[in-house]
Design brief:
heterodimer, A: about 450 residues, mainly alpha, about 0% strand, B: about 625 residues, 25 helices, about 75% helix, globular
């Protein structure tokens, strides 16, 4: 409860600060302080849970937190802090309304909080909308840039479309169950009919749209490419992870009992997502666009956690969310330092800026799932989770591994450019000691997770 | 004391790390001192452990350090086995190892790679200690591989000479072939018994063949382990690396041949006696291979002119005796011979090192002679070593070899007669070597003669100490006819029990002893007569075959190496270039092409996107509701 209120209030504080503060740097500083505070509030809440307190249900049982949701929120606020530290000065450069941008980021965290703790389909809907609307604004924040405006409009149009589908799904489920309260959902063989299944599939499609699963992924490359890069970084990471948590909770906990009815469809979606994301990424010329496709491909892997319908899936999503978010934010932070976003822009970076190149190497290795990086255990956990359900999904796991092999191609192309090609990479912005420190910190975090993934799981109860 | 056992391998490891990491900046004095002190410290701890176990055999046991592998039902602890067998080996390894270290400080003094050499040497000892101390086959295997690596590094220590690096590669590859056998044996053990720990495995076997495990399985495991032992302990057909291993510095040869490495195979089989006792076929195989190696290598040694080659083949031959003992179930006799052999073979090698040092690097017997006048101590200690290896009563080799031959006689008199023939050859070639080197007149250049000198104290003192051990080392295992108490057998009894060894009557034993001693003396006299007037004309007939080592290297080259290379060329040309490369590149092109097509789907039109999305969703709903639902 406290983190939820805090994130909303902090958002408002940022908005009001925008009225009186002129200096852009002040916003970043203020946002950093508030994020530290928010992380602290989350940790405070977590400590209570670890001491054995059971948090009470809020709003007539519409919100219910457990150790999983609080721990997830703590991680996400921590990652948001890292994000602001790494990308803050790029956010300042985007447009005139830096304070508002930070305010919107706090609202995104507020939405993520709702998604992790919802116990009612209405709160789920509310969370999705709270997390989506700031993104429409952020995508179009670079108003003088046509591509940015185009991205915003496209995202809004298609997002509105998917919101309709989500509402339709919720309505159908209400018809079947006579309640929005997911803990009262009671699926029996006799009431699994076209109405309830239809509702499940519509919700699956709508959530799939938000996490950019194929064939609902078409908005992703255009929006990620068009939006200002610092905002692409948050859309591709924290937002995606939060919606995945909602996705996972709904399908594992609520619909888990009748998983035989929907796993086939979801596995087709997973296979399509892996295929489209990885194959299309191969031919991209721009690293930013490649990262957009890579985020589709990575979503394919995260879908495994949903498919697993077991406790390992929950562990998997935690590790995946953190490893993927840190690596992606780090990679975007490196990318933003460069003037040229194509592969050629990276030529010779290894010689000119060894630390940038080295940390980028670790982020890319993690995204490709190479051992000793967090990405390896992320993939390991989600694939193991599915294998625990028997060999029925073996084909999908093998397919995923083949696709992971293809992903190595487009990630390593960046490594090749950095270390084996000659060039004079131009920087768009000066690299400060602080940048080096936080990039190194992010890379170190990736390695730590890659060696001891258990540290992320120690805070989970059951 | 037992709980301090981890210190034994730790000291050389520290020595290795310090010398290895700072080899560029270490002063010579300090690095040699450091390595030797590390060995001395290990030796001190080993002594403590040895006496503790001697006083109270129950003091031993497993020292668990940490969990090494824990996966499902597979559980492999990183633990050390402290008992009579391992503590005895610890003493041999650290004790003889220490003397060799001290000797090396002088022998290698002018070498530019001095510090690196001591780092390798410490690592070698560390790996060997791990091998001996491991409480399960996995830890033993780690040490086993470490020894293989260290021997590779040390044999090729003078890496600028191509033939030396070839020798090191040969040693490594031969050992790898054996290692495969060890690995398979280990996997079979894990598969059938679910454990590789001695403490869990052997009690199951001592009671008899466990249920659900056939005799064939036991034979398979035992033979696989023996293949591993063949590689490390240089038995037919994997023995050819050992003579070539002489390429390394002479103290390394002493270390490989006497205290470490080659005894690993003996140790492994003695340790696994419970396995071999249930595997009669494997046991016979061990005996036959051992005996064949003993004879074969001895025959080659008869006609070698390189002082180290003679010693190398004599090592192969003596190892054959040890395997013969293992094969007839006389495990303690094998360990006994390991011990006495460690003393006199280290002595002989270091003695030959002293000779080579004095000769300025010359190793050919044909250019030596009369060295005794200039280097009296080397001569006397070398003579003691020769007497010991030849099996003259009163010297250590006599007791251990006699014990092996007696056990062989009890099993099968044919083993005895063949073994005796090998022993006679041993006496002959060792004294041929001795007489050629130390008596008669000098046959080298004038310059070499001028240069001849006795070696410095750091080389002489280890020689003297080893000579004393080579003389008295046998008294821990007096034969039954002399004494009621066989100290070594009593010491080892809690760990290794001899299997199915018949006791001979005292009359038979006296007769066998008399026969062998008489014949050995005859052989020494024969060697003296043959070497009195040296003439080195070219060998013909069988002698030429022996000089060329039965052409085994050439045989291996033609039968194995060349066809393999031919196959490699064919595979490279057809399978690799046109087959695999074609597939791999083809897949890459396919993905690239697919990517190029897929890209076009993303045309930027929101209408198209939503249309494609709706079509996809409808199809998905159709699958979900009509097919599954």
């Amino acid at each position: 409860m406290k983190p939820l209120i805090a994130s909303a209030v902090f958002g408002v504080i940022m908005m009001f600060a925008a009225l009186s503060v002129k200096e852009k740097k002040t916003f970043t500083l203020l946002a950093t302080l508030l994020l530290v505070l928010l992380t602290g509030v989350n940790i405070y809440e977590l400590m209570h849970i670890m001491n054995g307190e059971i948090p009470e249900a809020l709003f007539n049982g519409m919100l219910k937190y457990g150790s999983f949701s609080i721990w997830f929120n703590t991680l996400m606020t921590g990652i948001a802090l890292l994000y602001v530290l790494l990308c803050g000065k790029h956010i300042e450069k985007v447009g005139q309304h830096t304070g508002e941008y930070y305010g919107l980021i706090f609202f995104i965290l507020c939405g993520a909080n709702l998604l992790s703790g919802y116990n009612n389909l209405l709160i789920l809907f509310l969370g999705i909308e709270i997390i989506s609307i700031p993104q429409y604004i952020l995508a179009g924040s670079d108003k003088r840039n046509l591509k940015s405006s185009e991205a915003s409009l496209k995202y809004f149009l298609m997002g509105a479309f998917s919101t309709g589908i989500l509402l339709m799904g919720i309505a159908l489920l209400y018809g079947a169950m006579h309640t929005f309260d997911v803990s009262q959902f009671n699926f029996m063989e006799h009431n699994v009919d076209a109405m309830s299944l239809g509702g499940i599939f519509f919700i699956m499609v709508a959530l799939g749209f938000k996490v950019s699963a194929a064939p609902m992924h078409f908005w992703t490359p255009d929006v990620y490419d068009g939006a200002p890069t610092p905002f692409t970084a948050i859309m591709a990471t924290i937002v995606k992870a939060a919606i995945f948590v909602a996705f996972l909770r709904l399908f594992s906990e609520t619909f888990g009992g009748i998983s035989q009815h929907w796993t086939l469809v979801l596995s087709i979606v997973t296979a399509l997502t892996l295929f489209v994301g990885n194959i299309t990424a191969v031919f991209q010329q721009s690293v930013k666009r490649m990262l957009a496709y890579s985020s589709i491909a990575q979503a394919g892997f995260m879908l495994f956690a949903v498919l697993a319908v077991n406790a390992t899936g929950f562990k998997g999503i935690i590790i995946y969310a953190v490893a993927y978010s840190v690596a992606t934010i780090g990679m975007f932070a490196v990318l933003m330092k460069l003037k040229d976003y194509t592969y050629d822009g990276f030529n010779g970076l290894g010689r000119k800026h060894p630390l940038l190149a080295f940390t980028a190497t670790i982020f890319l290795l993690s995204l490709a799932g190479i051992p000793l990086t967090g990405g390896f255990f992320a993939k390991y956990f989600v694939l193991t989770a599915v294998m625990e359900q028997g060999t029925g999904m073996m084909w999908l796991v093998i397919f995923a591994l083949l696709m992971a092999a293809i992903s190595a191609y487009y990630y390593f192309k960046v490594l090749m450019a950095m270390y084996f090609k000659k060039g004079e990479p131009e920087l768009a912005i000066e690299v400060t000691t602080g940048d080096r420190f936080f990039l190194g910190l992010a890379a170190a975090a990736i390695i730590v997770i890659g060696v001891a993934p258990d540290i992320l799981l120690a805070w989970l109860k059951n | 004391m037992k709980d301090l056992v981890y210190l034994v391998p730790l000291f050389p490891l520290i020595g290795f790390l310090i010398n290895g990491l700072f080899w560029k900046s270490m002063p010579k004095k300090i690095s040699g001192l450091l390595a030797s002190v590390a060995m001395l410290a290990s030796f001190a701890v080993s002594l403590g452990i040895f006496f503790e176990i001697k006083n109270n055999p129950a003091a031993g046991g497993v020292v668990h350090l940490f969990d090494f592998i824990h996966s499902g039902s597979l559980h492999i602890p990183f633990a050390f086995q402290v008992d009579a067998l391992s503590s005895l080996f610890l003493l041999i390894i650290t004790g003889v190892g220490f003397l060799i270290h001290v000797y090396s400080t002088s022998y290698m003094h002018d070498d530019p790679g001095f510090t690196k050499y001591f780092a390798y040497l410490n690592f070698f000892v560390f790996a060997m200690l791990l091998l001996v101390l491991g409480a399960n086959y996995v830890i033993m295997f780690i040490g086993w591989e470490g020894v293989g690596l260290a021997s590779y590094l040390l044999i090729g220590f003078w890496y600028k000479r191509k033939d030396y690096t070839n020798a090191s590669k040969k040693a490594f590859i031969m050992n790898r072939i054996g290692d495969l056998g060890f690995l398979v044996g280990m996997f079979l053990t894990l598969y059938h018994f679910g454990t590789a720990s001695y403490g869990e495995l052997f009690p199951k076997l001592i009671a008899g063949l466990p249920e659900g495990v056939s005799g064939n399985t036991m034979n398979a495991i035992a033979i696989c382990f023996f293949i591993g032992a063949m590689g490390k302990s240089a038995q037919i057909p994997l023995y050819t690396w050992l003579p070539d291993a002489m390429a390394g510095p002479t103290p390394v040869s002493a270390l490989i041949h006497a205290a470490t490495m080659v005894t690993a195979g003996i140790y492994m089989i003695a340790r696994s006696s419970a396995v071999y006792n249930l595997a009669p076929i494997a046991q016979s195989l061990v005996a036959i291979i051992g005996l064949a190696t003993a004879l074969f290598a001895a025959s080659i040694a008869l006609k070698q002119y390189d002082i180290k080659k003679v010693l190398a083949y004599s090592t192969v031959s003596q190892l054959g005796y040890m395997f013969l003992a293992l094969g007839v179930g006389a495990y303690t006799s094998a360990v006994f011979h390991v011990m006495t052999h460690a003393f006199f073979k280290a002595l002989l090698f270091l003695g030959s090192g002293s000779v080579i040092h004095a000769m300025g690097g010359e190793q050919d017997l044909r250019f030596m002679g009369g060295l005794g006048k200039k280097m009296r101590i080397t001569q006397i200690t070398f003579l003691l070593g020769c007497l010991a290896i030849a099996g003259i009563p009163g010297f250590s080799g006599f007791f251990s070899k006699d014990e092996i031959l007696a056990a062989a006689y009890a099993k099968n008199p044919v083993y005895y007669y063949l073994g005796l023939a090998g022993a006679l050859m041993t006496a002959f070639y060792m004294f041929r070597l001795y007489f050629y080197t130390f008596t008669g007149s000098f046959r080298g250049t004038h310059e070499q003669e001028h240069h001849l000198h006795e070696s410095p104290a750091a080389m002489i003192i280890p020689l003297v100490l080893l000579a004393i051990l080579a003389v008295v080392g046998g008294y821990v295992g007096l034969p039954e006819v002399f004494s009621e108490h066989h100290l070594l057998n009593e010491y080892l009894a809690p760990v290794v029990q001899n299997f199915d060894v018949h006791h001979l009557t005292h009359e038979t034993e006296w007769m066998l002893m008399g026969l062998s001693v008489g014949l050995i003396v005859v052989m020494i006299l024969l060697a003296y007569g043959r070497t009195k007037k040296p003439d080195f004309k070219e060998n013909t007939g069988i002698a030429k075959v022996l000089e060329n080592k039965w052409y085994v290297d050439e045989l291996y080259d033609n039968v194995i190496v060349k066809p393999m290379k031919g196959l490699a060329v064919v595979l490279d040309k057809y399978a690799e270039r046109s087959g695999i490369d074609g597939i791999v590149n083809g897949v890459g092109r396919l993905v690239s092409w697919g990517s190029n097509r897929m890209r076009l789907l993303q045309n930027g039109q929101v209408g198209t996107y939503i249309f494609a999305m709706v079509v996809g969703v409808v199809l998905l709903l159709a699958v979900g509701l009509l097919i599954v639902g």
